[in-house]
Design a protein that fits this description.
With 195 residues, the chain is an alpha+beta fold. The longest helix has 14 residues. It is built from four helices and eleven strands.
Length: 195
């Protein structure tokens, strides 16, 4: 997929769906969800499109050591999810905002930890100089978009959490394991871009 096809497909109305079906609603009614946003940073390299991820530091209280998109909870002064996603990306990985062209919002993703996350897709044009915040980010890396959009790489697994069997997606790229909310948002992107 090239940039023109990416932009054209993201202009379509996103499909209304829950990544995990009825399971997505479990526990949502217990407490109000905290608004948050992440940036899905797609880089337009001459060799092809890639997606930037972060490996979170091991000492963080929540989601330590996991692969994620740059992002976080909305602040009261944030006017839009786009603002939240870009602010957080600047804080976490030092992304220069002028390098980002916001393309679309994906459907909200409700986490089992009480967040209502808006994924914001942004196109980045190299050169890109990143400065990760060492308090939050151990490493920044890229994965080819073609790999992430290939359904053969979307593995659905289950495990017991809080006494219930839960389903989640896993995408393994080399030594990297992308799972949980991040993988769920990638499934959302895949379904939006699919023919």
């Amino acid at each position: 997929m090239d940039v023109a096809a990416l932009k054209a497909r993201l202009q379509r109305t996103p499909p209304a769906f829950a990544v995990y079906g009825d399971e997505d609603a479990v526990g949502r009614e217990a407490a109000p969800a905290t608004p948050a946003a992440v940036l899905v940073p797609i880089v337009d390299h001459p060799s092809g499109l890639t997606v930037i991820f972060t490996q979170r530091t091991a000492h963080l209280k929540a989601h330590s050591g996991q692969v994620s998109f740059p992002g976080g909870r909305a602040e009261p002064a944030d006017p839009t999810p786009e603002h939240t996603a870009l602010r957080e990306a600047q804080e976490e990985i030092g992304l220069a905002l002028e390098r980002v062209e916001v393309l679309a919002r994906l459907p909200e993703y409700h986490t089992r930890t009480g967040f209502r996350v808006t994924p914001v897709v942004g196109l980045l044009t190299p050169p890109i100089a990143l400065t990760p915040d060492p308090r939050e980010v151990d490493e920044v890396f890229e994965v080819p978009l073609a790999f992430l959009l290939d359904p053969r790489n979307h593995v659905r697994e289950t495990r017991e959490l809080q006494g219930r069997m839960r389903a989640y997606y896993v995408m393994r790229y080399g030594s990297r394991t992308i799972w949980g909310a991040t993988a769920g948002m990638l499934i959302s992107l895949y379904r939006h871009l699919a023919d």
